[in-house]
Amino acid sequence: METLLFYISNISKGGAQRVITTLSNHFSEKYHVILVTTTVGEGTYPLNPNITHLSLDFAAEDIKANKLTKNRKRNIRFKQIIQRYQPSVIITFLEREILRVLYLKPQLSVPVIISFRNDPNVDYSSWLQRFAIMRLIKRADGIVFQTPDAKQFFTGHYSSKDTIIPNPIHPTFLKERAIGSRDARIVTVGKLFPQKNHALLIRSFAHIASEFPEHTLEIYGEGELRNSLQQLIDSFGLQSRIFLKGVRNDIEKVLEQAALFVLSSDYEGVSNALMEAMALGLPVISTDCPCGGSAMLIRHGVNGLLVPVGDERALVESMRSMVNDPVYAEALGTVARKIRQEVDPQVVFASWESFIHDVVSMGKEIDE
């Protein structure tokens, strides 16, 4: 195994983008790594200079072209890249990129590993998308799932080698927390998109704001809902208590002394932000969102609390119980830190490398 090719839409902010760049950087120390992105442009996450970064879009006319022309050109360029670099394996994340690679698979003569990073019920929600993935998934040589629920979605439609591998977290989240009392801050991290349902968290905090006048809510992330979320905050008159903090590159520093981390998403794969908060030893609350990532991480009442998706009353009561009883909250956070043993980067890298080797070796045996 000499050359690994990773393929994703872009390397801007996002959980899948973070994971694929982390894997690319790690494996580039040992193998030749090619990172292909569909769109052109610099990414948020830094790349090791050893990595060959290529894009399927590289000219102004690509942006202006109609959808069919754009996809045809992208397919041609992807095949050209494969022919030129002859990778040992292709590893691809995200729904559109997975469909592209599986569609082209008979023309590539390269083992393909696909990895689903979100709830497949959402990613393949239209009948056409679902029909396409169910027909094409059997072309994959290996499949990496994040949760058993995601795997269950495809049961009966493939016979490929599969595995479940958690996301690696950055080593900065593995450090010991400085001894001292926690700040009166409730925090969350995530794009300001509908999926994250920050409005639920804002409304829930508004219910308990008068009970806990020293506490604030900090929401880290950017996105299309910033204005509407700010309007919601303003409607409660909580401009001095709830803050949209934007993006931070040192998020571990603002998280580690917080009183509580809350994930209010309607759906997730496995939330990187939730894992990072747990690794730092924060008390955590999460919605029990599909496709089962939060439930895979949290044992309710042992290392955190789970609440039903969209259940404002349940979230209010869980937040109240945590803030009211900091000793209980701290006990949950202490157990939550044990997640580090599962998501330590070296453990995750070893799992990925072993799986990649198995898939490549299996492909060679078939060829022989």
UniProtKB/TrEMBL annotation:
Positions of the Glycosyl transferase family domain: 176-338
Keyword Glycosyltransferase annotated: yes
GO molecular function: glycosyltransferase activity
EC top class named in words: transferase
Pfam families: Glyco_transf_4 (PF13439), Glycos_transf_1 (PF00534)
Keywords, comma-separated and alphabetical: Glycosyltransferase, Transferase
Domain Glycosyltransferase subfamily 4-like N-terminal: 14-171
Enzyme Commission designation: 2.4.-.-
Keyword Glycosyltransferase attached: yes
InterPro entries in alphabetical order: Glyco_trans_1, Glyco_trans_4-like_N
Name recorded for this polypeptide: Glycosyltransferase
Organism: Sphaerochaeta associata
Lineage: Bacteria, Pseudomonadati, Spirochaetota, Spirochaetia, Spirochaetales
